[in-house]
Amino acid sequence: MKPTRSTLAVTLALAFSSASCASWAADGPSVAPVRPVTDTYFGTSVVDNYRYMENLKDPEVQKWMRSQADYTRNVLESLPGRDALEKRIQSLMTGDLHRGHFTRVGKRLFYEVLEPGANLAKLAYRDGVTGEEHILVDPAKLAKDSAHHYALDWYSPSWDGRYVAYGVSEGGSEQSVLHVLDVATGAQLGEAIDRTSGSIVTWRSDNQSFYYTRYPKTGPNTPPSETWYNAVTNLHVVGQRPNGEGDETVFGHGVSASLDVPEGQATYVLLSPDSPYAVAVANHNLDNNPNTFYVARVDEIHGASTPWKKIASPEDGVTDVQLRGDRLYVRTQKGASNFRILSMPAAHPDLAHADVVVPEGSNVIDAFALASDAIYVSERAGTTFAMRRVSFDGKESHPIALPYAGAIQSMTVDPRAPGVMFDLRSWVKAPREMAYDPATKTAVDTGLIPPSKNESSDIEEHDEFATSYDGTRVPISIVAKKGIARDGSHPTIVTGYGSYGVSMDPAYHPAWQAWIEQGGIIVTSHMRGGGEYGDAWHRSGQKLTKINTMLDFIASAQHMIDAGYTQSKYLAANSASAGGIVMGGALTINPGLFRVILDDVGVSDSLRFETEPNGPPNVPEFGSTSTEAGFRGLYAMSAYAHVHDGTPYPAVMFTTGANDPRVSPWHMLKMTARVRAATTSGHPVLLRIDYDGGHGMGSSVSQYSSKMADEWSFALWQMGKSGFQPKQQ
Fold first, then answer.
1. At what angle do helices 579-588 and 628-637 cross, to 10 degrees?
2. Torsion of Cα atoms, 720 then 726 then 727 then 728, to 10°
3. φ/ψ of residue 409, rounded to 5
4. 60 near 29, Cβ under 8 Å?
5. Suppose 698 and one of 151, 184, 382, 655 were both cysteines; which one would form an S-S bond, judging by CB atoms 3.0 to 4.6 Å apart?
6. May I ask which residue range the UniProt record assigns to the signal sequence (predicted)?
7. Which domains can be identified in the chain, with CATH numbers?
8. Rg of the chain in Å (alpha carbons)
9. Element holding 281 (H helix, E strand)
10. Are 623 and 603 in contact, with CB atoms under 8 Å apart?
């Protein structure tokens, strides 16, 4: 997604001294009041100077937020190159036609489409790959004014393709409302069911009813930690009880006195049109880590009396269960760090005696999908990918040749039809929607995603390895102009994530060309805590070992200096959400390594994370302050607890969305106040707030491009790039 073929030659020099930068910090809003609160955890006292900011409804806090947002806006708009950079980014992001998130029911394909120049994705369908495209839902038409927007959160079609249930929410809040649409007529039915954020909807074979996830009602006295927790699964019949009130609850924590369903974020039920069974999932954090699974016959599902039979608990290491006829297929990491696939009868599930269909190998089994003809398995080895077709008994296995090297994403099947569709992409090649036909034994481009106008032969990607503090080799992916000189002159952004076993797979980012055109480099660190090398790689960057993730990131950045690509004065760190833990480490462990820190909606005060709406579901990944080991791990990864007065910190921009349901905005508020009070460098510490945004899900193209332009122009200013230096004040 990179149009321009020429890359500007950049000569970098620090045009702005730290003294001039200091004037920006000094001219900002008054320093936030310090009101210390001391907590003692297992003998360790921790002082929190800005606890009061956790009350986001406090008028004083709201006023301070507004002053910070206004100040940041004024600073950023004073940067000469910012507006032109935003226009370039937006042109790159809106120049192509994008389709994705495909679902296949018979010959009918449902998907999301982002048209050239559009701001938000729409829901569409077509009959067959070459069929005419029909738009079903356009969230842009739901907005009441220009200050607010709606987004499509999720969708699920019935097995016959007649109906589609979908969720929309306002302002990036992810507070979805479930609706149902008649595909043939385009008519909206009467359903409007709230509290369906991230709902997993599964249609029954009658194509008139479905199971869906719904969160409990909250009141004024509901603790924040319980507002986004213990969602249950209900049964809804189209046309009955349109607001969902009175729908039968069939599964969830506390639903049945005879069934011990563990606490967690949400539950859902999975079905297959060729199976008489249903799988129920108690998912602690709506992720692909080990969860609790149950099975029952569909005709025996009757509210709280449903005879659910447990398949697996988290200690069994099962991450996915799928149905085919009267058998269950499971992906498990127990005794297999690279995973394996097992099969067993649904009527008598017994993991200890399950058949091994796909044994553990040298590659990590990323995912599998059950079509009518075979099991399709995607695999990885670090940053390389492969796919194979396996018979249901595991006796036959054949590799599927890929047309080019890239990451395999989103395998799409209909269990009643042969073959598989999948997304293939790389760092420098835009996504293609491929289809494998077992009759021809070939994977071909469907043409559903047209070629990008912006791919550039001037840009290349290659992988290197950084060496972490303990000798661990950490893969890094480097995207830059082809043949870039290792002369230490290049503005470089290092990014990464390193949590939940989530891998940083190759992905084509259209806006990156705008940074590369400034002579820049973008580096992705595949740190421990991710899933690039399986479960062991994940666990070695989790809880008490989370320090490995932070140190791997620092080693990745140091590698770029040692290899001659850049210098500290041209180095920026950027991540988001759980990646905020990594940003905190980059800020506090080695403050002199980076010139700029860009921390987006980041987890910063991990000791207080449990108290907010999305905190309890994350305990399995990060730990809990209720245990000493949990506290030790959380304390080590808490950037907020390790900001020290009198330290020359880098320039920092913290960003948040006012409607963020995943990481409360107060993390970024507290970090802004704390770092600004502590730093002696004179470098600016800014807080950017999007009042029509949340965690990033559901943000429009213009919101993404604006944020990116803000962050990149801020970084280029601080790195001394000509064209981004404000006039001296």
1. 70
2. -70
3. -130, 150
4. no
5. 151
6. 1-25
7. 456-618+633-718 (3.40.50.1820)
8. 25
9. strand 277-283
10. no
